């Protein structure tokens, strides 16, 4: 956790405490690893709201590769019509900031890619050491559908619970009780079913 991240999350946490904008903090494990499954994603400030609610636990977020890789970020900026001369500097700034604040890349449309497998391994290592992984299950701001059942697979691989989190349109964060996965291997159909069940909770 960088000093900037720590101070920002701590400040957000204090504001949330004053405004009583967080419920369910008693469901946060103080020492053990878990996966934060954020069920809503309407705003770019959502990661900070969740991080503030979880403070002082540090969250390593899974995010689309477009904001983690300079080339992918540059391509995305080009598609949005960013002036060509500005793309290298903007892409470098975005990627530098993201990579310094504990973010792992995900290729949303290529499940078995090298990038995703590497992120999966790193996520398991973090969880097994008692860390926290965060993922927006819809795959992006206002994106329809699930980001597959990736978060279920990561939690299952490390035998940790899933902590469902909702964010209201007013920015209120609600933390549900941990969802403990069943023992034994899970098929993709079973992971998808669990993911839908969690999203509906």
Could you explain how this protein is built, in words?
The protein is α/β, with parallel strands linked by helices. The protein has a single domain (3-64, 102-199), classed as Glycerol-3-phosphate (1)-acyltransferase. Helix content is 42%, strand content 15%. It contains seven helices and seven strands. It has a seven-stranded mixed sheet, with helices on both faces. Strand 6 and strand 7 form a beta hairpin. Helix 1 crosses helix 2 (46-54) and helix 5 crosses helix 6 (150-158). The protein is globular and about 55 Å long. The model has no long low-confidence stretch (mean pLDDT 79).
> Per CATH, what is the topology?
Glycerol-3-phosphate (1)-acyltransferase
Lateral strand order in the biggest sheet: 1-7-6-2-5-3-4
Q: Tell me, what is the CATH class?
A: Alpha Beta
Percent strand equals: 15-25%
Amino- and carboxy-terminal Cα gap:
31 Å
The computed structural class is alpha/beta
Write the layout of secondary structure elements.
Layout: H1 3-19, E1 22-23, E2 34-38, H2 46-54, E3 59-64, H3 70-79, H4 87-99, E4 103-106, H5 114-128, E5 132-136, H6 150-158, E6 162-167, E7 173-175, H7 188-199
Parallel strand pairs: 1-7, 2-5, 2-6, 3-4, 3-5
Antiparallel strand pairs: 6-7
Q: Could you write a compact summary of the structure shown?
A:
By secondary structure, the chain is α/β, with parallel strands linked by helices. Helix content is 42%, strand content 15%. The model has no long low-confidence stretch (mean pLDDT 79).
């Amino acid at each position: 956790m960088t000093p900037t991240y720590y101070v920002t999350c701590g400040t957000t946490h204090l504001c949330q405490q004053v405004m009583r904008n967080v419920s369910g903090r008693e469901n946060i494990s103080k020492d053990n690893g878990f996966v934060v499954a954020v069920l809503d994603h309407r705003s770019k400030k959502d990661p900070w709201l969740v991080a503030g609610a979880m403070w002082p636990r540090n969250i390593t977020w899974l995010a689309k590769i477009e904001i983690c890789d300079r080339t992918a970020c540059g391509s995305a900026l080009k598609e949005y019509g960013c002036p060509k001369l500005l793309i290298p500097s903007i892409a470098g700034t975005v990627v530098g900031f993201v990579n310094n604040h504990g973010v792992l890349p995900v290729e949303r449309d290529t499940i078995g890619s090298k990038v995703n497998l590497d992120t999966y391994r790193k996520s398991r290592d973090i969880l097994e050491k008692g860390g926290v992984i965060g993922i927006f299950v819809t795959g992006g701001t206002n994106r329809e559908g699930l980001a597959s059942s990736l978060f279920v697979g990561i939690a299952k691989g490390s035998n940790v619970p899933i902590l469902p989190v909702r964010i209201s349109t007013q920015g209120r964060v609600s933390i549900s009780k941990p969802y403990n996965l069943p023992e034994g291997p899970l098929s993709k159909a079973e992971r998808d079913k669990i993911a839908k069940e969690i999203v509906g909770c």
